[in-house]
Write a structure and sequence with these properties.
single chain, mainly alpha, 2 domains, 8 helices, about 50% helix
């Protein structure tokens, strides 16, 4: 038996083995004009396989790119479009510049860090403390969004102090952060359901 596992691996499986065989056949044709004619025929067949995409811009361009891929860029014909080369296709994408700072506190989000930076600039002690309390309450909400455990005020206040480099300090004995009822209800440990056995 001739199984697919023993056959040549398909470069673009969505077109099927027959299309790949047609492309392989075109590679064996010596006459350039005949190769061009056969290539256009294969492109038409590939287009008929996805008629709903014909109205999309550059659909034909994509088909010619796929033909070049299936031929492993060895097909010498008159392409109507400029094709990508194998080096461009295999090139690794550019690395996304993620911010690695404060990874320990990333569950609070970047916005909290921006709030803290702005609060550090305030000179009035009362205004600074009031803003620090608001930030701490927002941090508490963010904590519940990403953690299933109940958090105490001293943990939040400690994190705020650490994230601000000791610039925003709240007294745990004097400050009580607002209760986060909506999210704290989700964080409570679910009691095991009692299984009622039928007698």
């Amino acid at each position: 038996m001739d199984y697919n596992t023993s056959r040549k691996k398909l470069i673009l499986p969505e077109y099927g083995r027959n299309i790949h065989k047609m492309v392989d056949f075109i590679l064996t044709v010596e006459d350039r004009n005949e190769r061009n004619r056969l290539a256009h025929s294969v492109i038409n067949i590939m287009g008929n396989m996805n008629p709903q995409l014909r109205d999309i811009n550059d659909f034909k361009h994509k088909l010619w790119d796929h033909l070049a891929l299936m031929a492993e860029f060895k097909l010498d014909i008159d392409y109507p479009y400029e094709l990508p080369n194998s080096e461009t296709l295999n090139k690794a994408p550019n690395k996304v510049p993620y911010q690695d700072k404060n990874r320990k506190y990333r569950h609070y989000g970047v916005t909290v860090q921006r709030f803290i930076e702005e609060a550090k600039k305030i000179e009035d002690p009362e205004e600074k403390e009031a803003l620090a309390v608001l930030i701490a309450e927002h941090m508490k909400k963010s904590y519940y969004n990403w953690n299933k455990y109940v958090v105490t005020d001293d943990v939040i206040i400690g994190d705020l102090s650490a994230m601000s480099g000791g610039n925003l300090k709240l007294d745990v004995d004097k400050i009580t952060l607002a209760e986060i009822r909506e999210t704290s209800a989700r964080s409570k440990v679910v009691k095991k359901k009692k299984v009622v056995r039928k007698k």
